[in-house]
Amino acid sequence: MDVPDRPPRRVVVVGAGMVGLATAWFLQEHGAEVAVLDRSGVGAGASWGNAGYLAPVMAVPLPEPGLLREGLRGLPDPTAPLHLSPRLRPATLEFLLRFAARSTSAAWREGMRALTPLDRAALAAFDELAAGGVTAPTHEAPVLIGFPPDTADAALRHELDGVRAAGQEVRLSVVPDVGPPFSDRITTVLRLDGQRHIDPGGYLACLAESVRARGGRVAGGTRVRAIRFGPGGLQVETWAHPPEQADAVVVATGAWLPELARPLGVRVPVQAGRGYSFSAGVREPWTQPVYLPAARVALTPLGDRVRVAGTMEIADRDAPFDGRRLDAIVRSVAPYLRGVDLADVRDPWVGPRPLTPDGLPLVGPTRMPGVHVAGGHGMWGVTLGPVTGKLLARQVMTGRPVPELAPFHPLRGRSGRAA
C-alpha cells in the first residue's frame, strides 16, 4: 500500500449500517470530512433488527462441520433453523461449495486466530465511541445459555475451548438453579460473563447523529451505482443525485457489497444469510440476554419487551418476507420460556446478513486506488463494526497497512491470501 502525500481530506462511506457509520466516525477522529450515503436509511440492512448482542467470544467463523450437516438436513424444510432456498442462483452454489470446503476443524481454527485480535478489541471500540459523545448505552450482562435434557452442551463448550485456545478470555460457568425466564424444559444453563448488549436501532440512530454533530453528512435514499475516477479525483455516482467528489471511498453495503465491490476486483462471494426477528411482551422486564442453541434463537432485553431473533435462511437478499420463518421461531422457543407473551408479537423484521465462504469479513483496499471495502461480517457486524471502523479508518488515513486487518484482505483468493 502506497503512503499518500497527505491524508484524504474528504471520504465518502457507502452504507449506513454499524460498519459504515462506525468507519465514518473514526475517520472523523483522523480529521476527515465524511459523507455517508445509503440506499435506504440508517440501519436499513442487517443492523436494525438483529439481536443486539455485543458478545465477542461468540464471534467465531460460521463454516464448521456441524453447521454444514445441519444445513443439509434443513434443505427441504422451510421452517428449519438453518434453511437453504431450493431456488439457488449460480453465485449461491459457488458460495456453498466454497463454504463446504472451509467447513473443517483446521479451517475454523485458522479463522478463529484471524478474528481474535478484533474480538479482543471489540468492546473497547464501543467505549471509545462513548467517550467521544455517542450517548446510546451498552449494557453489560452475562449471556444465559439454556439446554433441554436432550441437547448436550458439549458442542458449545468445545467451541468456546477453541476461542480460549486462540487467545481470548472465556468466563463460562454453570448456573446452579434454573429459573425464569426458562421453563422446566430447560435443565442446564450456562452463564457467559463479560458480554454486553444494545438496542441496535437506537444505537445506530445515536451514532448517525454523532457523525452529523461532528460535521458529517448522512444521506438516505441515495443509491450508488458506480465509483470512478473523474476530474479532481474519485467520483461516487448515484442514480438520482449529482456525483460526490472524494479523495477516498469506503464501501460498507453489507449483503449488497458485490454490486460495487466486484468491479473493484473483489471476487470473494458475499451471500445473504437472512435472519428474522420480532419483539414480544414479557411479564417482568429482562436484564440479561438468553441464547437457546436447540432453536438457534437469541433473545435480548429491549425496553419493556424482549427481542427474539433467529434462523439462517440462505436465499436471495431481496426475497419477500416469509411468515413461516417467524412462526417457526415462535414454535421453537415457546416450550423453553416462561413469562414471555409470544402471542404479543410486534416489529416483524427480516434482514440479510452478509456471509463469506471462509467466515471472515472483507476489510481493506481494492484494485482501485483510494477505494476500500468493509463488510461480510456475517452475524457479527454489530459486535465487530466499531473495531473494524477504527482499524480501517487508520489504514485509510495513514496509507499504512494495519496488521490486524491482513487476514481480511478483500482481494484474497481461494487460498485466503491476497490476490
TrEMBL record:
Keyword Oxidoreductase recorded: yes
Any Pfam family: DAO
Transmembrane feature ranges: none
All residue ranges annotated as the FAD dependent oxidoreductase domain in the record: 10-394
Keywords: Oxidoreductase
PANTHER family tied to this protein: GLYCINE OXIDASE (PTHR13847:SF289), SARCOSINE DEHYDROGENASE-RELATED (PTHR13847)
Protein name per Swiss-Prot or TrEMBL: D-amino acid dehydrogenase
Organism: Pseudonocardia zijingensis
Upper classification of the organism: Bacteria, Bacillati, Actinomycetota, Actinomycetes, Pseudonocardiales
